[in-house]
Every structure is written in structure tokens, then in C-alpha cells.
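Researcher: Good morning. I'm working through a list of sequences from a screen, and I'd like to move beyond sequence-only analysis. For each chain I'm collecting a predicted structure so we can compare shapes side by side. This is the next one on the list. No need for commentary yet; just the structure.
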Amino acid sequence: MSSASGIPPPPSYVCAKCDQPLVRGKVVASYLGSEFPIELWKCPECGKVLVPRELATGRMLQVEQALEDK
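Model: Good morning. C-alpha cells for this chain:
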């Protein structure tokens, strides 16, 4: 079940690189020179970000398509 913000409920996500539990935090996504602040799961040690499949194939895909159409 996803929340209204597109972030799944807090499962036990763990960084594959650092073996640290992921935490929710603000990150900046960029595409075609545009930047978008968003809150996602990220590793507190290395900063790698988890982009849930639903977000990548849904909202983010729509933003990419809108930017490419400009």
C-alpha cells in the first residue's frame, strides 16, 4: 500500500552497499537540466537512493515525458 506522497510504508529497506537501514529524506532528482526536490528512502551512509518501481514507472515517467515534449 502506498501513501499519498508515493512513498511506500516503512518496510525494512537496507542498503545493498552499506548494509545500513534506509531512512526517508529529501533528495534532488534531475532530468534534462531540471531539478525536482522529492522525499525518498536513502542510505544515511553512502546516500544511494531507492526509487520505488511505482514512482519510476508512474509519476516520474510522466514528468520525463512532459519535459521531453517541451
